[in-house]
Amino acid sequence: MITLFKKPVRVHGHLIPTRRYTGWALIYVLLFVGMPVTILMVALDVVGWAVTVKLFGASCYGVGCLFG
Hints:
Elements: E1 9-11, E2 14-16, H1 23-55, H2 64-67
Antiparallel strand pairs: 1-2
């Protein structure tokens, strides 16, 4: 089994450091993964609200309406 964090490898005598997570990696993940997913989910929620409340004339929108 290949491990992600193993001892450093030498290539032509040069030491190649192991992988490590940085603050920049977190920023990039939040910016390029988290932000688009959040925007997409908000857009789908607005479409769902518009269809439910405006088109079907429901008095409320959401899971709470199912039990109320």
